[in-house]
């Protein structure tokens, strides 16, 4: 059965969600992405690019790394992304897309452009960055698990101080409610998972089911555990979106004018 419209949880014009714990901890604000967030999102992408830590040990080129992972979402479909602020500073994001065909077309041409740019810079890279480029060309495309083609998707990155079940749930709720109100039926994410961090069971808690997964071999020389890229999917028609409410947190919703440019 299709559940009721969740408009009361997240306002229809990208409201802010303010979460304040019962303790004297700083309030978190979850809101729609703004163009002024672009630089902070790119920086956070590089700060968390290596299993939640800075990407530098694996790849030194922050510009190309952030271009590859964020540019489509921030520049071409910003209305589908959300951020977490703590005391006015961006501490996490969810970058999403509900236009799969546009995303796939952009990714195809972007991959060609980024390949040429990386090739031009290759001789100046250190050995670890060169190894990363070789892995991308030879193995990267093989180690991406299958995913539904005509389905909205997302990926999420959080700094350590924002990695809490309650804040993750509220961020997911904002995005899933956004999709639900627009009539989307399913959503998937491709999530880096491993034993000690952000396992598949965390997303099962939010109603996602694991479709498949593939080991990412580029981390073998840096990390002792096996690392996987897992495809998780949620049916919005039967399951509905998430409630943003989670004890012991109180959630207050305050409407604002459209937060997007």
* Distance between the ends: 36 Å
CATH superfamily: Gcn5-related N-acetyltransferase (GNAT)
User: Could you estimate the helical fraction of the residues in percent?
Assistant: 25-40%
Structural class: alpha+beta
Q: Enumerate the strands of the largest sheet in spatial order, edge to edge or round the barrel.
A: 7-8-6-5-4-3-2-1-9
Offer a concise description of the structure.
By secondary structure, the chain is α+β, with helices and mostly antiparallel strands.
Structure, described:
Helix content is 33%, strand content 22%. It has helices at residues 38-47, 62-76, 100-121, 127-138, 165-181, 200-204, 236-239; strands spanning 16-20, 28-32, 82-86, 89-97, 153-158, 186-193, 209-215, 228-235, 250-254. Strands 7-8-6-5-4-3-2-1-9 form a 9-stranded mixed β-sheet, sandwiched between helices. It starts with 15 loop residues before the first strand and ends in a 7-residue tail after the last strand. It is of the alpha+beta class and 261 residues long. A hairpin with a 7-residue loop joins strand 1 and strand 2 (28-32). The protein has 7 helices and 9 strands; from the N terminus they run E-E-H-H-E-E-H-H-E-H-E-H-E-E-H-E. It has a single domain (16-254), classed as Aminopeptidase (3-Layer(aba) Sandwich), CATH 3.40.630.30. Helix 1 packs across helix 2 (62-76) and helix 2 (62-76) runs antiparallel to helix 3 (100-121). The radius of gyration is 18 Å and the shape is globular. The longest helix has 22 residues, at 100-121.
């Amino acid at each position: 059965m299709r559940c009721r419209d969740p408009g009361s949880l997240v306002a229809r014009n990208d409201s802010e969600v303010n979460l304040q714990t019962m303790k004297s901890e700083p309030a978190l604000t979850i809101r729609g992405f703004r163009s002024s967030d672009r630089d902070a999102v790119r920086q956070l992408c590089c700060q968390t690019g290596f299993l939640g830590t800075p990407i530098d040990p694996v790849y030194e080129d922050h510009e190309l790394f952030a271009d590859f992972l964020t540019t489509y979402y921030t520049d071409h479909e910003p209305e589908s992304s959300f951020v977490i602020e703590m005391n006015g500073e961006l501490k996490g994001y969810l970058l999403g897309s509900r236009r799969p065909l546009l995303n796939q077309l952009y990714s195809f041409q972007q991959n060609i452009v980024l390949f040429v740019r990386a090739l031009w810079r290759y001789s100046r890279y250190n050995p670890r960055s060169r190894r990363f480029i070789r892995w991308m060309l030879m193995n990267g495309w093989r180690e991406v698990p299958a995913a539904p083609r005509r389905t909205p998707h997302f990926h999420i990155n959080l700094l350590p101080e924002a990695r809490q079940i309650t804040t993750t749930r509220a961020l997911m709720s904002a995005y899933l409610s956004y999709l639900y109100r627009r009539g989307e039926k399913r959503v998937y994410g491709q999530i880096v998972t491993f034993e000690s961090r952000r396992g598949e069971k965390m997303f099962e808690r939010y109603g996602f089911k694991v479709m498949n997964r593939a080991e990412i071999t580029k981390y073998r020389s840096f990390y002792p555990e096996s690392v996987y890229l897992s495809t998780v999917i949620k049916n919005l028609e039967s399951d509905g979106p998430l409630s943003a409410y989670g004890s012991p947190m109180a959630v207050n919703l305050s409407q604002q004018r459209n937060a997007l440019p």
